[in-house]
């Protein structure tokens, strides 16, 4: 339970941090040396950062970025940042809308109704309950007396909240589907629109090659539209060799740059100093060698090895999966939603994810493996969600200062220094929490990948789902339960003493502590948006890392670029955390309406910040076509469902007989979720044929589509080989079937180059290859 | 609880009835006048009934039919009786297999183990339980003492039973899918293979006609393969007029036949007597008119009315649904599984059911209506299943003889007759049960139709599902509960008196009465197969009805044919009843293995009888392509699940600690059901493209396909109109779009008549029109 003064102090601190960070951002973002940190997306597109509206001293007006974020249109956002980022920003719009319209009723009507009652006062006077309320609790539903007719207003609030959410979510879903349809029917076609993946290919007949098998099958069922196939092969060795080769090349470039630099330096003279390093781990021990020679040798040694391995892989390690290419968007969309074999465990054809999102490793996980893996992962996730806090508690209990000094006596002298001791004592208990929570997203991503999912965006969504249940269970439920138990320790003792320790009295205790908990969650939310968004906008950490790297490590242009590479939005911890906020806001909207303005502020500031980041900072690694929306939609509904159940419970605690009128609400939510799933979700699974049939103006060439789907470690090595021609019509083609390209096809044959545009390769080459781990 | 002597009497009686019915069948089935009753399917195909293996006196050897049933191959069965009937017979094969392999372990091992223990004896000696066991109970698991190590054998029996079922069901599903694929890729294509239905067509733009809208949409998305559309129209008035016209025609033919007959009879002389009838209801009152004139007038009057109505309907009552035709099987199979609009509540395209199974009335039930209807129907079904017995009990309580004579005093003189009184007293209590149970299938079919399902076979399956839960709940659970309560009334009283009336003691009471209940279910099953299949085979009721009708009512050839028309298999009460038997057998297989031979006999005799009926008697009205199988498969698994839960409960009652080893079984069943659903079920929803792509030799003409899907009441009336040419290119075509037929198409254009065969119209015209109620 938080006192009013504590609440204001906490809010004030967060606000100060926020103002400070915004000022830092305004100051730093115009420095020329910082531009790659604050406008990387613009720089990568070759655009100039916006002109500063300076207020002098090189400081931008602190709201200039907000103006720019506000003025960008939806089309611009999709064009610049991609549909995924636009959908993520749109999530903030929708959250603002839902909270705003809920507030319209809840804030001006429910707060006065609560404030003019005096339940808390009565309770505080009652010595039996020994309750202790702050003035903030007086404007929440807890201040209304049991069985009071005033509760009707709160009940109406519950309905208002639910219907506002349904209405806005429905409109939002429709809007996103339209965005998606526009994206899919775009006149500039994308390579994945001509492509499907096929899994669970049955074993080949004796002597038959995989390509022959796949080609024969698809030529029979799609005689007019099937172009060619690319068989999935085992890549672990190839990608390892390729990574070694890439490292060697980078090291060589680095060494050459160091050598060039040393020439210009006065100390070594015009000949410069050839850089040297030791061959042991981290260059710490071993023979000292000339770096340029060493890495050149290494490259010469690795390149033929890689080519040999590529050759071997293509013929010997073919798996029961393939990527297949069609000559039109419509044909690929059709094939992707059709059942090809009467048995679902053979020839499963799916729409291809975007090339960079394809998880090559998971392509050959078979049907039955997927079934088992899925179940095992769900089980592990369940235990993680429910019991993750237990090891944290255990570790925290163990890592006390006396324990540490006992088991690690050598740290004693350090620990005995006063300041260090104070610091360790203050932060040690939270260390376990921080470390374990930081590990969680990685763990959940690994779990989701283990399910056998074949696209990165799907893995991220699966992990987000798991994370959402984790935070709701541990933050929302966990805090409510622990908060009640610890906050009401006295009350519990009293009840016990009075022999009055029944299930009902416990429920009432929980009920009584619900509205005070809201105050805690308000500070939680405001810290998140003030400090969190301030930090996000000011990008202090990447800024410092960049400048350090640039100064001490980077020698080549490529290394500098890698140092400021912004990366994509981190949906994985962001989306579930944002969803937690709306879940909290909806849950307390009626019980403690004061949370609403804070929820609103969270999403409103978030809207500006994330829009700014989408437009100017982050560069998507891949596009999923807004597939995050159904995920967000259904989690908001989970939040609403939790909220309705909470209300049901709290109205019961208030002994309000008409609480039965709230019972239909959770069922309505289930029904609404079911209807939305039936009506809207299918268009996220498949591309509607009517959409795929729309006219295409710019089509990629078949070879560019195939290249987009070929893993970089199979493509790139070969460029360095002298006998590239021999290679090209040689063994590599084994894994790529060749059929004559049709002239009447929608896909441009290499001949009509006039129409064909190469697929825009992302600026940063490192991002462009499908993930092979 | 059934005593041993009662059990044997009951079995003996059933067996006598069976022998008698088989003898009657052997005797009657060779009489020439009875052939239409015993071999209608053969006669309709123009084949001769099989030659009799007579044993003299015109009696066939009683096992001749069994020989014939045995010798027919699977292909013959599909060819003659259709895939649906073959799947229904195959269900019997599978049940026999499951029960046989279960028996292999349970009968020779579990029965001796139970018989050599003496728990029942001990219980009977114990005055506290006052138990009363028959000798049959001594060979069931109840006779094993609590906590005995002998229970291990029964536990293994549980596993054996489960794995036998899994294995056989999996093989069976594969087999049925192969049958289905063979059927679908048959060289002789069926009209529904070129057809899809489309529902939820959005409102037309102003001034645009439905046909233009549908054609424009599908010409855009399937430019190469779309042929034409047939818009669904409101048919209630048309079909009423058409029915009146058909009645008038039949009556005219009847009257003419009566007139012809009277000419040949000596009484009236060569001129004959013109038949007359009264115009009032049932010909009981009103003006007497000349029948031939009256019905001729009526036909003249109705025909133009019908044509006018057809015209009006086609233009004015167009609904938001259509039937669309493609030029190849592959194209229709593709379209039927594709999402056409990004929104699922628009342009839903589904594979067409077979024309005669299409429920025209439900075609325009909109997406949201279907959602609501489905939920409402499920709710009503739930209440029906749980509470249907209550009104039966109430009515039974009310319809006692004293009550009847009190409220209906005029029946008193009849009731006072001794024999009548005895009869009424004996059967009155069951009258309510019989009437209500007879109404149930009709009610469930009506409920299923109200869901908005568009094919008759699907409606039947939906009703079967509901019925299955009804019989399992009411027969299996109901009898177990009521049997225990009434059978143990004494025990309950004793427990109450002893102040020992706890939940546990009740559970033990249920447990103790489980094996004795098995005896009741054995008599239940044997009555069903002996009397039930005897009656089915001998067809006494249709035989008597036919001869009565033929003698007194039928005058025209068509009327005679209608009198013996065999109709299709009645899957609706048959399938759930058969499923109840396997549920009972599986549930008691381990607890009271004696049930196994009886279950085996049920399905073995059923196999012969139903195979005979499929080959020689029933004529399918429509084909669903074996879609009943997934339904049967999952209901058998429900039975297994019930069985595993029962075992869990009963092992607990036996205080067997290793009962925990049984806990994985129900989960395994859920997993197995889930895997089968994922792997095998999709091929029942959609036609695999690989299957649809196989070569077609005989294709129907487009016009014959369209005609097959046009409701009879729109087709037939027009034949009688003089100005048929004017009509044909006139308004009727409004509801049928016309696009030029493609020459390169898979579907034969009317020109190449050489290849095209008309779709075989079923012998009985009355069966051929889609249902319009």
TrEMBL record, chains A, B:
Domain CSC1/OSCA1-like 7TM region: 375-651
Membrane association type: Multi-pass membrane protein
Domain CSC1/OSCA1-like N-terminal transmembrane: 7-169
Keywords, sorted A to Z: Membrane, Transmembrane, Transmembrane helix, Transport
Keyword Transferase recorded: no
Bilayer-crossing regions: 6-28, 98-115, 151-169, 376-398, 427-447, 467-486, 579-605, 656-676
One Pfam entry name: RSN1_7TM
Domain CSC1/OSCA1-like cytosolic: 193-362
UniProt-recorded name of the protein: Early-responsive to dehydration 4
An annotated GO cellular component: membrane
Subcellular location: Membrane
Family note: Belongs to the CSC1 (TC 1.A.17) family.
